[in-house]
Each structure stands twice: as structure tokens, then as C-alpha cells.
Specification:
CATH topology: Rossmann fold
Bound molecules: guanosine-5'-diphosphate, magnesium ion
Order of helices and strands: EHEEHEHHEHHEHHH
Helix content: 25-40%
Strand content: 15-25%
Length: 227
């Protein structure tokens, strides 16, 4: 048995999208099965983790939430650094949040790895009957055009939430070089031999202050990618 701090792979995933689309609730639904009716845009925990099993490997899913900076369009490059997955979320009842997906995609292109696995999420599908403003076809067409995964979810009634996260993690796992998987080794070929468990410690949970969230210049943080 692996203890809580032992895992074979650490997958960092970032949540992005307009304020109010349900990012924080998707995260809490997935990690602790909780939903909150009030919008908490106060500064909170930087990320939450959940261990998942894929193919007899323990994956530590480390999911980063924006803590409200998205309202100021001031997400730092550090937020994206090292991310292997992204959920780009819009609200199916707010057309503007769908239009703004293009802004968030540009952010990803500017700051994230080109290898990142992206899923487009149309959230609040529980409200589809009464107040849908973006059709499933519009969402699907954009995802297809950009080569993304796509799902409609509800953090409120839990529709597709686990499935969305798991599909992204499965896809990231499937993209790992075969050599890594065989060696049970998160770091690649030079690590322990097969069967030997390695223990990696993630950074402890930190809290963001508003100043530390905004005082970095995104451009300087892009890690040399994508001129
Ligand atoms: N009906 C419905 N409301 C939701 C859903 N997800 C989030 N909300 C509500 O939308 C508001 C914003 O959610 P929040 O998670 O704070 O959005 P964030 O700003 O993107 O993190 C809150 O009032 C939530 O209760 C959903 O799937 N369905
Ligand atoms: Mg939030």
C-alpha cells in the first residue's frame, strides 16, 4: 500500500475560464464531493490534490484553482508552469463566458506547454432546460476545431464531473512515454528500477496573497516557450 505521500506520477492540471463559471465548485465536487451555492471569490487554497489509480499506478492529481485572479485577467505564468492538463470552463447559460474561451486559450498558448491536454467544459448543464445560452453543438464544434476534449458538466448535481477529470488524466497518462510507464518512474529513465517505489513530496499547500498573485509579470514566466 502506498501512503498518502507516495505516488508514481504527479499530474498538475489548471482550471481556467471566466469568473463565476463554476471552476471552484468543479474542483470541490471532484476532490471532496462538495458544492457551494455561494460564489467564494475570496483568496483561497492554491490547489487541491486527489490520488487516482490508472493502470496499477497511483497518480497524484494536483488541481490548481485561480482563487479569483481571473477577474483581473492577472493569472501569473507560475500558475501554468508544469501543467500537463487544463480544463477551460465556460457557463452554458452565459454566452459571454463562451466567447471568452478564446482569451483563455491564448493564455494557455502563451504560458503553458504545447503538449498540454486540454478539455473544454460547458458547466451548469443542470440549467440547460431553463436557461441554456450555448448549444452543445457550439461547444462541440469549438472543441473539435481546436482539437480539445469536450464535455458538459454540472458541479451542482455532479453530472460528468468525475468523468471529465478522469478522461483528462487518462489522456495524459496515455501520452506518457512507454518507457516511463514500464519503469514505475515519474522522472524518466534514470530513476529506480522496476518494482521499486519512489516517494515524491509535493510542495505543501500554500496560500496566495493578492499581491503575490499579481506582482509577477506573466511574460517573464513563460519559460521560453512560444515566441
Ligand atoms: N446551477 C449551477 N450552479 C453552479 C454550478 N457550478 C457552480 N455554480 C454556481 O455558480 C457560482 C460560481 O461558482 P464558482 O465555483 O465560485 O465559480 P468560479 O468563479 O469559476 O470559481 C456559484 O454561485 C455556484 O454555486 C453548476 O454546475 N450548476
Ligand atoms: Mg473560483
Amino acid at each position: 500500500m502506498l501512503t498518502d505521500d507516495e505516488y508514481d506520477y504527479l499530474f498538475k492540471l489548471v482550471l481556467i475560464g471566466d469568473s463565476g463559471v463554476g471552476k471552484s465548485n468543479l474542483l470541490s465536487r471532484f476532490t471532496t464531493n462538495e458544492f457551494n451555492l455561494e460564489s467564494k471569490s475570496t483568496i483561497g487554497v492554491e490547489f487541491a490534490t486527489k490520488n487516482i489509480q490508472i493502470d496499477n499506478h497511483t497518480i497524484k492529481a494536483q488541481i490548481w484553482d485561480t482563487s479569483g485572479q481571473e477577474r483581473y485577467r492577472a493569472i501569473t505564468g507560475a500558475y501554468y508552469r508544469g501543467a500537463v492538463g487544463a480544463l477551460v470552463v465556460y457557463d452554458i447559460t452565459r454566452q459571454q463566458s463562451f466567447q471568452n474561451v478564446m482569451h483563455w486559450l491564448k493564455e494557455l498558448r502563451d504560458h503553458a506547454s504545447t503538449e498540454i491536454v486540454i478539455m473544454l467544459i460547458g458547466n451548469k448543464v443542470d440549467l440547460a432546460e431553463t436557461s441554456r445560452a450555448v448549444s452543445i453543438d457550439e461547444g462541440g464544434a469549438l472543441a473539435e476545431q481546436e482539437g480539445f476534449l469536450f464535455m458538459e458538466t454540472s458541479a451542482l448535481d455532479a453530472t460528468n464531473v468525475d468523468k471529465a477529470f478522469e478522461t483528462v488524466f487518462d489522456t495524459i497518462y496515455a501520452n506518457l512515454p512507454k518507457k516511463n510507464k514500464e519503469g514505475d518512474n515519474a522522472e524518466g529513465a534514470s530513476g529506480p528500477t522496476t518494482g521499486e517505489r519512489i516517494q515524491l513530496r509535493p510542495p505543501s499547500v500554500r496560500r496566495l496573497s493578492r499581491s503575490s498573485a499579481t506582482d509577477e509579470k506573466p511574460k517573464a514566466q513563460s519559460g521560453g516557450c512560444c515566441s
